[in-house]
Amino acid sequence: MRRRSFLLGAGTAAVAGAAAGYWRSRIVETTPQVHYPGMQAGHALRDGASWPQPASVRRHGVAILGAGVAGLSCAWKLAREGHTDFIVVQGPEFGGNAAAGRRDGLDYPLGAHYLPLPSLASSHVREMLADFGVIQRGAGEERPYYDEAVLAHSPQERLLRDGRWEDGLLPMTGLPEADVAQHRRFLALIERLRGATGSDGRKLFCIPLALSSRDPAWRALDAITFKQWLQREGYTSPALHWYLDYCCRDDYGARYDVVSAWAGLHYFASRDGHAANAAEGAVLTWPGGLSVLAARLRDAVTRKLGHDRWLVAGAAVRVQDTPAGPLVTCLAPGPAASAYSVQTRRTVCAMPLFVAQRILPDIRAYGYDPAVHASSHAPWMVSNFVMDGYPAEAPGEPLSWDNVVYGGRALGYVVSTHQLLRVAPSPRSVFSAYHALSGRTPRAAREWLASASPEALRDEAAADLIAAYGKAFWRNARALEITVRGHAMASPLCGYLSNAGLAALREVDGPVLFAHADLSGYSVFEEAAWWGVVAAGRVLGQAPPTA
After folding, report:
1. pLDDT tens for residues 94-126?
2. Contact, 279 vs 109, CB < 8 A?
3. CA-based diameter of the chain, in Å?
4. Is 414 helix (H, G, I), strand (E, B) or coil?
5. What angle do CA 248, 349, 324 make, to 5 degrees?
6. What is the DSSP letter of 439?
7. Residues 6+ apart with CB under 8 A from 204
């Protein structure tokens, strides 16, 4: 463990200084704290645990099960439309993949850390951001004006390649001219696809995914992998292949040799948001990542309702059909095993489908058979290193918000204090390292995560940081918190667009509704929020937009 200084009298100052220098010079690897949010409850559901009998019954028109982005978006939409008779049963973790941590006054993400500028098609996200003051004017225009404080500041991203940092993540220098030409050809294609429409008049690639073109000529790309498509189209540059594989691992948790080619192109071509006061490709971010948006959704609902009793502690473990509507059994928090029930007219399952299938009597009744239709879910580690000072950087190579190692085992690291407007760097910071364990099968990765020692997890978490700074990195790392998410995100593998089970759940409109990014087959804020808003619309009798 690293030593911490104490308040000392003036007579011991010289000794204290020598001791500080001694401990500062030592390389001591930080002992991590490891958290597994939701794992205990999830395994209990999986293993068929028995639950206590409910001690009380609550009655509400609507129960939303889960306080992740989808559940909170559903609540926000209901409250915004004047519907007040609902509750949100929080589940094991407020915010889900948009959760955050805090230590010694520093916020840091436990999941997603940024939001791309939403396109015009993502009107639901723009409406939220305007409600929260993130969009300050022009929410319905092509280039809204955003709060400057949340636009990622420069330098935004850099890549460590051949022992030196370079701007951007797609290598463009020191390569054969033929490879650079391929990179430019790929970027030009993406620019064309961003504005392209299919035979049905819809955008080829859109967020939300439900509004994308159904042109069969393009949807056929879902039958091959992104790597196969690149090879078919004559893209052979190793640097381009590395970059596109990195992007798939980063957004989908899976390698480009298993991700659908349609999804691989969608990653780039669907992102066409702009800002009046930011350069192309800008993103929105906060020290605590997307937890800020989860908190603002919560606060907006509380303001609208005039109370915070709508957010209820507990986790749903069973949904039963009754003549009066769905009856939900919930475990109450606390060391003593106790439960309560919620009688509703409508229940929104705003949780991952691998959880929903455990709490419903038979999810196959809705057209979804887990044995056939379940998506692959990627395991992740999010590791937050609390830093005293900063590791040494080479002259002329300033620390960026996002820092990636070419060919690295992980996905790089983000500097949480990058958004804090100061003339000089803050004396303390958090480096948030991301790791999708895509080198193993999801099952093998989950088994390793569950059995690995804290030290083994630490070594994996620090892989890119050690590649960047060597073991001297540990001189600045004071504490380490590792968050393990065994089923962090659905991965859009080949065939996900034609998944009949997901298509069936997307159309369900009855006493039980579904709202989660899993319905889209991959996990990003815009998709989770979309299905939350769609579920709220169905409660209110509003049909979802289709074009």
Report:
1. 999 999 999 989 999 999 999 999 999 999 999
2. no
3. 82
4. strand
5. 165
6. T
7. 193, 196, 197, 198, 212, 213, 215, 218, 269
